[in-house]
# Entry
Amino acid sequence: MGLVVQKYGGSSVRDAERVMNVANRIVETYDQGNNVVVVVSAQGDTTDDLIEKAQEINPKASKREMDMLLSSGEQISVALLAMAIEKLGRPVVSLTGWQVGVQTDTKYSAARIHKVKTERLHDELDKKRIVIVAGFQGINKYDDITTLGRGGSDTSAVALAAALGADVCEIYTDVDGVYTADPRFVKNAFKLDDISYDEMLELASLGANVLHNRSVEMAKKYHVKLAVKSSLNKVEGTYVKEVDQVEKMLVRGVTRDNDCARIALCGVEDTPGKAFQVFSLLSKNGISVDLIIQSIGNGVTKDISFTVTEGDLDHALQLIEEKKDLIKAEKVTWSKDVSKVSIVGAGMVNNAGVATTMFEALYDAHININMIATSEIKISVLVDQKDAERAVVAIHDKFML
# Structure
């Protein structure tokens, strides 16, 4: 008998038919002799609907009250799913994040999990109950409900799996697993059987929306074996774990990320510490910078270009304007019409020519590269957003994935 943690996203439980489908899958796992803990997201568009209701009442509502509101979506899901399992005649209990004992810090709307108390979970499992837990939420030291931000239910599931020492944490979505590229527009993309934590973390951070990067980070830290599966069929999914390059592939995936914007500081004084002034200003204000290019300069001025998320663009430009007397750029330009296209693969580090092959693919497709960044297992380029999909297809075809 094993301990299985399963997570189902909002689309998997969006209506009564899908709730019953999920209930049957859970019961099937339970009837195989497993202890089962299930983490569930809010149904369908429930979270968006709740945000819209809040906007009607108070567009500037506090994050504490927003957490109180948004956490109710998951509470609805767990109760309905528990009712469905009751209908199938199995013992079950639904619990909120605070009932389980998911303790977080005090950052409303983007809380981090500090600890999971497992006493209640073990007690319910000892009673042979299926435990349905509300994802995306916890409780802080003030006994206030907090939410975990984007990808919060994935993170909840991995945290519970780590705390309980689960045999596997199964993340159920509306896709069959992790693909070499987005199969919606890369027709010959195929599903991977295995992928390493590091590769999955890079893919998640670079635009692949299958898993959230925080959940992968946690899974790697606590050695939680992850399985990405479809809630709509019984196809074997993709396992995320420590693997020794199971498939002899240099490149394991190609991704694109449209959530980026480029800022260029032109004609900045070519003096020591100028880059520090710029990037410390941004980091102190919670703005993360990704790709960076600094020209050699001519001894008088140089140019500094970098990317931020599109959501941080206005704030970054405001800070630069406020500190223009310190930064002293002759001109500041920016663009939202850019995308980051990346290749990821642990096998790249010991193989020369991978970057050349990627750049050749873009050259053949007549796609211009604006910026480049590399690491041991990734190469990212910034291209015009209109070329992003073509870039992914061209690179995928060139590496014959």
Observations:
- The chain has a mean pLDDT of 92.
